[in-house]
Amino acid sequence: MLIIMMNKKIFFVILFFVSSTLFAQNVPPPVAPILEKTAQKYNALSAFSLDFTVNIEENNKTIQNFKGTLFVKKEKYFVTFEGQIVANDGKIMWNYQQATNEVTLFEAEEDDFSMFHPTKMLNNWNSAYTAKFIREEEFQKKQVNIVDLMPKKKSPLYKIRLFIDKQTSYIQQIMMYEMDGPIITYTITKFTPNAALTDAKFTFNKKDFPDVEVIDMR
Predict the structure, then answer these.
(1) Three-state secondary structure call for residue 5
(2) Residue 129 — φ and ψ, nearest 5°?
(3) Domains present along the chain, CATH in parentheses
(4) Apex CA 201: angle with CA 100 and CA 104, to 5°?
(5) pLDDT per residue as tens digits for the range 126-146
(6) Which of 42, 47, 96, 137 shows its CA 20 to 30 Å from the CA of 188?
(7) Please, are residues 188 and 68 in contact by the beta-carbon 8 Å criterion?
(8) What digits encode the pLDDT tens for the residues 8-60?
(9) Does the pTM of the predicted model rise above 0.85?
């Protein structure tokens, strides 16, 4: 999982209102309006936070399961899970490992595929992915649209599947399919739009990590 994380591929997207007439005629709704509406919803937020669970499955068997929390403010993000923190304040990306009390610092990159910044994926879906509407179904007592995104460029993933709430346009679940590898499922358990977040939340401050070893890769 850490390898996926350090490659910084992926994370969130999509939705749109589809008329019952289209479904009655068995005509799939166009994908572009779904993606565009969801992108507009996330871009309109000053910030947001969410709790999630991750299930990693290989050969139809769960090999890892854990919980995490993500905070996003414009281009900044902060995610914590399994004794780790991965954050980006727009200038520096940093990864803290609690087990070893180490933090590694990197130059922040303009990465459209960052798994920790859903709006980047949403805003660049047309150039970065081939999108396909799959179906509408009920998910956790909500009606969702399911859309697949296939990366146009070489990627460790061959498909990202998104489950989007038809009523709110917020993503409920993301499934990431690796080439000859596991399926990683992120399920959103709590979403807080316009969360009150300061810029300091995303910046590494050595005072917050006593005796931490700093590995500077910049």
Answers:
(1) helix
(2) -135, 160
(3) 2-194 (2.50.20.10)
(4) 30
(5) 788 899 999 999 999 899 999
(6) 96
(7) no
(8) 433 332 222 222 222 333 455 688 899 999 999 999 999 999 999 999 999 88
(9) no
